[in-house]
Amino acid sequence: MKKAVILLSGGLDSSTVLYYARARGFQPSCLVFDYGQRHRVELKRAAAIARQAGCPCRIVTIRLPWGASALLDKRIGLPKRKAVDPREIPVTYVPARNIIFLSFAASFAEAIGARAIFIGANAIDYSGYPDCRPEFFRAFQQALDRGLRSGVQKKTIKIYAPLLRKTKAQIIRMGLKLKVPYQRTWSCYSGGRRPCGACDSCLLRRRGFEETGLKDPLLVTRTPGHPSHV
Amino acid sequence: MKKAVILLSGGLDSSTVLYYARARGFQPSCLVFDYGQRHRVELKRAAAIARQAGCPCRIVTIRLPWGASALLDKRIGLPKRKAVDPREIPVTYVPARNIIFLSFAASFAEAIGARAIFIGANAIDYSGYPDCRPEFFRAFQQALDRGLRSGVQKKTIKIYAPLLRKTKAQIIRMGLKLKVPYQRTWSCYSGGRRPCGACDSCLLRRRGFEETGLKDPLLVTRTPGHPSHV
Predict the structure, then answer these.
(1) Among candidates B101, B78, B72, which has minimal Cα distance to B201?
(2) Contact: B95, A110; criterion CB under 8 Å
(3) Each residue's pLDDT tens digit in chain B (230 positions)?
(4) Which of A 86-125 lie inside 8 A of B, CB atoms?
(5) Which residues pair with B64 in a beta bridge?
(6) Quick check: A140 and B147 CB within 8 A?
(7) Cβ within 8 Å, pair A96-B148
(8) Helix/strand/coil percent split, chain B, to 5
């Protein structure tokens, strides 16, 4: 089987990508980042999702002590109930986050002999982060091709972002077919024990489920140890 | 003054770059990586060099537990007294090291409002690492221009690699003019208390000093607390 590194956050998109890669015949190894995010509850969710999918999971701890993001610094308020405008980059932007995550993924992939990295980035129903756009991934792919031993040896490690041009509703429909356990995923940025329902990430998720006409199983299912939010 | 992030390892090249950036009117902030390297003695050297240069210094701790490098895994032997062949990539290559370091540097630079990153990479007297070559830096620059908020806002964070096309002897001559305290720098990979004189990095350094006709002050000067190696 073809090895692949999956950047898994425990959210809806990356969990869908994990199941997608598995369905495509890849043997996934998940890479999860504890980067000081306020919603660190996602770490446990990511580990649980990897376990349910039967895939190994590594948690990498990094710190970005320079902050400059509402996800890292609780003194910066999260935008609430504000329509997401992808032309604006919100305060939840973390400088170079995907650049850092992909760099570690490339190191890990090269070390284990994987030729694929999967990332759940999306440039349609998204928060406007520049490192989620196709032009960024194309450029970063070039950097890997030139900066990695495997690239120089023509054994390219390829970045796959299969959700890049899908709407959130399309992602959810695809994930449901793949039996992604959405009740275990976590999207909320707020850092509370229940989804706040008002941050960018909750809004995008809610709109996605509304468009499918389905209920978000996270909000209706009781997960052991996690009170439901109804 | 123009802020700049300097990737400082405590070695000869990056220390020269720190002094070069300062002389060019930049206000340097040093970024040093504890990445599990066997020669962690370089961390103290880097901090001391930054202090002597009067520049702030941050040490970032990361781990690459997948190893796959003689610098990370002591079970992989270091090549000794072997002429460096830049067409071969040696076992001291760390997968994606400069990619990771530059990613953090970009995050830090964007957070503090710096528009410059300096790296002491060299593609002449070097070990053949692909992420030290001009084509890699060009590609990574494109990735930053497309993936960072500052890039999208046309406030490019530029990567400077002023040593890229210099010989080691040229670097040393330049550094001596800039009064780089070479007696405090550390190049050896071995992880001992004295330079081994036989690893890639020691060989490149020695050849550089030989070409200048000067003695390496690290090998003749007694640094407090560090026995000299003569």
Answers:
(1) B78
(2) yes
(3) 899 999 999 999 999 999 999 999 999 999 999 999 999 999 999 999 999 999 999 999 999 999 999 999 999 999 887 766 767 899 999 999 999 999 999 999 999 999 999 999 999 988 889 999 999 999 999 999 999 999 989 999 999 999 999 999 999 999 999 999 999 999 999 988 899 999 989 999 999 999 999 999 999 855 555 544 43
(4) 89, 93-100, 102-104, 106-108, 110-112
(5) none
(6) yes
(7) yes
(8) 40, 10, 50
* Bridge partners for B226 per DSSP: B223
Q: Enter the ipTM.
A: 0.93
Are residues B63 and A60, on separate chains, in Cβ contact within 8 Å?
yes
Structure token digits, residue A40: 């660190």
Residue B230's pLDDT is what?
A: 35
**Euclidean distance between CA atoms B202 and B84, whole angstroms:** 11
Sort A165 into a burial class: Cβ within 10 Å, 0-12 / 13-18 / 19+.
exposed
**Encoding tokens for residue B112?**
């503090």
Strand partners, B160: B118
**Cross-chain residue pair A104–B107, CB shorter than 8 Å:** no
Q: Say if residues B127 and B86 touch (Cβ distance below 8 Å).
A: yes
All residues of chain B having their beta carbon less than 8 Å from the beta carbon of residue A151 are 130
What pLDDT sits at residue A224? 52
Domains of chain B plus CATH, in order, are 2-220 (3.40.50.620)
Which residues make Cβ contacts (< 8 Å) with residue B25, sequence separation at least 6? B1, B2
List the single best residue of A136, A137, A138, A141 to mutate versus B (max B Cβ within 10 A): A136
Q: What pLDDT is attached to residue B87?
A: 72
Count of C-beta atoms within a 10 Å radius of residue B202: 21
Residues recorded for chain A:
230
Q: Which two tokens stand for residue B171?
A: 């670097």
Q: What is the pLDDT of residue B170?
A: 97
Which residues in chain B have Cβ-Cβ distances shorter than 8 Å to A99? 103, 106-107, 143-144, 147-148
Q: Is the dihedral of CA B98, B104, B110, B115 positive or negative?
A: negative
Cα gap A174→B62, rounded to integer Å: 35
**Residue A222: which pLDDT band, with cuts at 50, 70 and 90?**
low
